[in-house]
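Friendly challenge for the regulars: who can give me the structure tokens for this chain first? No prize, just bragging rights.
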Amino acid sequence: MGRRPAFCPPLLSNRCARTAAPNSSPPIHGGKPCTASEVSLVHLSAAAAHRREELATEVEEESDNATPRLLSVLVPSSSSPSIHTRYPLGSTSHTSHQSQREMGDIDPNVEPEQDYLGGQREMVEWNVENVQADDDNSRGGGQRRKRKHVTIPLFRSPLSRLLLSPRIRSPSMQHRTSPLGSTSHTSHQSQREMDYIDLNVEPEQDSQGGQRAMAEWNVENVQANDENYQGGGQSRIKRKQVNAEQARSLFDSLLAMSRNGKLKGHETSEVAALYSVHVRTVQRIWKRGKACIDQGQPIDVSSRKRNRCGRKKKEPDVSALSNVPIAARQTLEDASKHLNVSKSKLYRMLKKGEVKRVSNSLKPLLTDNNKKDRLNWCLRMLDPTSIPNDPTFQGLFNYIYIDEKWFNITKKTLRYYTAPDEQQPIRTCKNKNYIPRIMFLTALARPRFDSSGNCTFDGRIGCFPYVTYVAAKRSSRNRLAGTIEMKPILSIDKSVMRDFMIGKVLPAIHAKWPREDIGKIIYIQQDNATPHLSPSDKLFCEAAQQGGFDIRIVCQPANSPDLNILDLGFFNAIQSLQNKSTCRTTEELVVVVDKAFEDYSVCKANKIFLTLHACMREIMRTGGNNGYDLPHIRKSMLERQGSLPLQLKCDATLVNEVMAQISV
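First reply, four minutes later:
Bragging rights claimed.
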């Protein structure tokens, strides 16, 4: 933008202002240079006072022949800032050419001196002879010469705009700011107008002794203008948002005022004023409420902006992850790169369920014979009396499941929660690949409950550690020679297994098995591990027939850990309980594992058997495969409702298809 031209009052030509402003120098007042606003007042007041005296003298000299004229003067007033006005001398009648006569040149470089009133005025020197010659030419009818213009220094400041015009449009007028302030403005702000300013008010003296104009305007109107002009000159006021409760209260008020479903014109305005909302908001709520009543629907006048406003979401194509290899999308960072979104966006999608995190475990490789064996096993687990009309799995109350598992003293990595200022403990060992551990042989049967839900048999046959007790051969700082020590059995073979089965498992069954089932067949289900006994092991069979019991060993299908309740969930459960306790020795580990085995809930153990039924049903649906998701049948909810079944049913059509598949 170019430089703004100097402002000139109506009766002073722009030529005068342009020639005077660059050469003007601000006077000194009170030992300090005056500001632009104060300088304008000083120069205008001094020049006007001096010119008034000169013109008064001239009028007296020319009173005989001069025509009354209208002179342009600057009248200094004690009750107002210097005001630019027209002052008639002698008479009110004048001609147009006489009104154009202006003051002579004023030297702006002359230092103003103090007059008797204490004010400052500038010494103006002008050529009197030229003025008299001009007067002679005028009286003689000759060609008139234009007098030299009086050069009055005007400064480019908002104060000159304010004081020299009775009604102004101040571009610097802003909310709660002085009109004498900044000159920066926008196009729409330059259109705002001030109220009329009374220029006859006595100017106040500020702290620096200068003069300032007193401008009064309506602050409320300025605030309203601020809101109206925010939209580029158009009236665009932000409306108040009404919540559901306020909208319903507003509609009830309108409904109470209505007559036959109609309102008068002033009633909506009254309600709008009562709730301090726009009248269009009241009308919209009334229209929606009436529509709900006419349609016989519940009245709903709540805002419909929810989930319908704001920036629209960019939904990424989640199906693109299916084309990415599993190894390339194991972390949020990798998956976010393939979806072209940020990690935070992908995390929010994960919380909403748009993507999910899964764990994929390795499963045993199954051959065709393994699949057929699995299908045959599932058919054997069906109750023979329920086939073919209503196939139902057996209750498995006469099955005892046995298996082995290693339990370590501690884990390599622990994940836990801590306070911000808590120090982490230092855990050490000689070799983290050889953490002390013990193998346990666990035997578990299905719990039994009476009609009232009380447990009559918990099914815990026993949890037996593979350890041996020997006497210490020599003394050490930890114990004396001959002290009985517990040593883990690191090598498990058939002889060790036979000793444990005959010496520990069978006596536990004889002691804990319900008395009413003695004489019935009891099956001990085991996997096909090499140390396990054969179902026809002679020594075991002899021991299993003693005491009136009929105990037999059965082997589950090969590569089928999902058909054993211990591998299906029980071992993981008691290991989780064991990890909650701290162990330092193998003796402590045995105590902790035994406690976890005894503390495990019998109700949860009963649910594992129902999970086994569901797994066998899925095996039949997949044709003997193990590539199925672990089924969920909401066992906890059914238990709370008191409708948890003892056995799950199977589709008769599915059973017939499996039988046909096996017979091929």
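Confidence is low (pLDDT under 50) at residues 6-30, 66-131, 148-235. The first strand starts at residue 28 and ends at 29. Your move, everyone else.
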